[in-house]
Specification:
It contains eight helices and twelve strands. By secondary structure, the chain is of the alpha/beta class. Strands 11-10-9-5-6-12 form a six-stranded parallel β-sheet, sandwiched between helices. A two-stranded antiparallel ribbon has the order 1-4. Strands 2-3 form a two-stranded antiparallel ribbon. Helix 3 packs across helix 8 and helix 5 packs parallel to helix 6. Keywords: Disulfide bond, Signal. One of its GO terms (biological process) is triglyceride catabolic process.
């Protein structure tokens, strides 16, 4: 059975059991009456592990998890919504702000000075579903893009950034292969980054001229291309968030899925997804896993407390 078929079987929760027909007696006039059809709900476990950086962790969105505090991981990030809507049996979230693909394999120094274990330690042979959302911190790509916003367009190292984003594909491919080695039956979804900045024009929330944003948007698109290539080459799947987030960048005002340049405690870190952005990403992940829309897009994430695996820290 393939990984996708196995997970589809896990999501098939309703089984109809029919016992057939019996002959009638003299009391019922000799009419054959069918036995009642009994619907039995079969609980089928899904063990879900979320790996990723701050765009998966959700720094400053609502309440932060304390396991560990140094990852700035929200209780309302997209993995939490996915775990809630899929009603998983086990939910392990090791996403961590500032993580790179290196932190999949090595301990990571967090913001508070403590160390988080390698994220891949959370993946086991029993894992059924993995989401992986990272790559933007590799080679300092996103840091460079932020610096580009404060520079003249000519000062942005676009050529170097193009080269660096190309290298991300191989790193993502390696990551997906390592995940599948640890969990051979798992379905691995590589989650892309949303549009943060407008592809045309600018606004006060960005604060720089449109000609500066052109190279930045180009590199951001190349990064998502690299994630898609790495996912496919590694044997995983790609969830395209860039496409659905068009028109929801920082200049979209009330329709924006991402925060502007200010730290807003309870809302989001600068140029990071807000809770509505996290719900949107979770919706796309859910669609990819099930082929359907969520039955209910909830305001907040409420995965089963008994399913949540607390991490050391």
């Amino acid at each position: 059975m393939t990984r996708s078929h196995r997970l589809a079987a896990l999501l098939g929760a309703l089984v109809l059991a029919a016992t057939g027909c019996t002959s009638g007696s003299a009391d019922d006039g000799g009419i054959d009456l069918p036995d009642p059809v009994v619907e039995t709900e079969v609980a089928t476990p899904i063990d879900y592990v979320a790996l990723g950086d701050s765009f998966s962790a959700g720094p400053l969105i609502g309440t932060m998890r304390s396991d560990p505090t140094g990852c700035a991981r929200s209780k309302d990030n997209y993995p939490a919504f996915v775990a809630d809507w899929l009603d998983v049996t086990s939910y392990t979230d090791v996403t961590c702000s500032a993580a790179t693909t290196v932190d999949l394999y090595e301990p990571m120094l967090m913001f508070d000075g403590n160390t988080a274990p390698p994220q891949l330690d959370a993946v086991t042979r029993g894992t059924d579903l993995v989401t992986l959302g990272m790559g933007g911190n590799d080679f300092g790509i996103y840091d460079s893009l932020i610096r580009c916003q404060g520079s003249a367009a000519a000062d942005c190292p676009v050529a170097q950034l193009r080269d660096d984003t190309g290298k991300v594909a191989a790193r993502v491919e390696k990551a997906v292969r390592r995940i599948l080695r640890a969990a051979p039956d798992a379905r691995v979804l590589v989650v892309g980054y949303p549009d943060i900045l407008p592809t045309e024009g600018t606004c006060n929330a960005v604060g720089v001229p449109a000609d500066v944003l052109g190279p930045v948007a180009e590199v951001a698109g190349l990064l998502n291309d690299a994630l898609a290539t790495g996912a496919e080459d590694g044997g995983g799947e790609y969830v395209d968030i860039e496409a659905v987030s068009e028109g929801h960048d920082v200049c979209a005002k009330g329709r924006a899925w991402v925060n502007g340049p200010r730290f807003r405690v309870g809302v989001a870190a600068p140029f990071h997804p807000k809770i509505n952005g996290m719900r949107a990403v979770a919706t796309e992940v859910f669609r990819q896993v099930t082929g359907e829309d969520p039955a209910e897009v909830t305001e907040y994430a409420e995965p089963d407390p008994d399913a949540i695996v607390l991490n050391a820290g």
